[in-house]
Amino acid sequence: KAGVTQTPRYLIKTRGQQVTLSCSPISGHRSVSWYQQTPGQGLQFLFEYFSETQRNKGNFPGRFSGRQFSNSRSEMNVSTLELGDSALYLCASSNPSPQETQYFGPGTRLLVL
Amino acid sequence: TQLLEQSPQFLSIQEGENLTVYCNSSSVFSSLQWYRQEPGEGPVLLVTVVTGGEVKKLKRLTFQFGDARKDSSLHITAAQPGDTGLYLCAGARGGYQKVTFGIGTKLQVIP
Fold first, then answer.
1. pLDDT for A97 beyond 80
2. Which of B96, B97, B105 to mutate to test the interface with A (most CBs of A within 10 A)?
3. In degrees rounded to 5, what are phi and psi of residue B90?
4. From residue B51, how far is each of A75, B25, B54 by CA, in Å?
5. Distances (CA, A) of A46 to B14, B33, B84, B91
6. Testing the interface with A: which of B98, B103, B106 to mutate, by most A Cβ within 10 A?
7. Confidence class for position B78, pLDDT limits 50, 70, 90
8. How many CB atoms lie within 10 A of CB A64?
9. Which of A74, B24, B44, B103 would be a feasible disulfide site paired with A68, CB 3.0-4.6 Å?
10. Which residues of chain A does B102 touch, with a Cβ-Cβ cutoff of 8 Å?
């Protein structure tokens, strides 16, 4: 079974731009969670999608949004990028919820200049 | 404020030494997971503990869940350079609620 894939792996943007990250979960997994990882804060939960619906949301500003498609693939978007958005963005898939084993992708490393 | 406090945050030891990493909270969890993350990769699940007082062993790694299900520990015996990585604990509260991660313990095992 193929693992969780994330694209792109690396991204450099400038302040004010927007970015879209993509995540393909393990086949059959319907729950996709997104996390932001920084050295100072660790893994911070962004949101979780299940069957195309946002089921849980973390404490991030509205600039962070996401969606899930009917094939369970998910995207997250960050608008009006700020320097503090530089981080490793991790996607994890599970079934039927994050309470079960989460399988993480390798992450997208975003650098905002 | 971290809901799950991990200590120590950094640990550098010689090969062959033993170590213990702690994960503490004031909240009760239905289960607690331990992950290991290597540079450039996502975290990989090591173990899930669900019963208060439960002890699980994975080769040289021993995981314990506190009796009150508020804390956990990871003990590594005779550490190897291959154990180097970031160790994360994560607490789950059941149902479809989100999982909360600790900040992690960065372990370096020197040959």
1. no
2. B96
3. -145, 130
4. 36, 16, 5
5. 37, 19, 27, 16
6. B98
7. very high
8. 18
9. A74
10. 42
Tokens of B64: 């314990």
pLDDT at A66: 97
What is each CA distance from A10 to A14, A32, A108, B96, B104, in whole angstroms? 14, 20, 5, 31, 23
User: Is residue B19 a contact partner of residue B8, using CB atoms and an 8 Å limit?
Assistant: no
Per-residue model confidence (pLDDT) at position A33? 95
Q: Give A52-81 pLDDT, tens digit per residue.
A: 999 999 999 999 999 999 999 999 999 999
B44 touches chain A (CB under 8 A): yes
Q: Are the C-beta atoms of B86 and B36 separated by less than 8 Å?
A: yes
Average pLDDT over residues A24-29: 94
Exposed, middle or buried: residue A5 (CB in 10 Å: 0-12, 13-18, 19+)?
middle
Answer for the pair A44, B98: CB distance below 8 angstroms, yes or no: no
Q: Which of residues 70-109 of B touch A (CB under 8 A)?
A: 88, 90, 92, 94-104
Interface touch B99/A4, C-beta < 8 Å: no
Q: What are residue B32's DSSP bridge partners?
A: B49, B91
Please compute Rg for chain B using Cα positions.
13
Per-residue tokens: B86: 């970031």
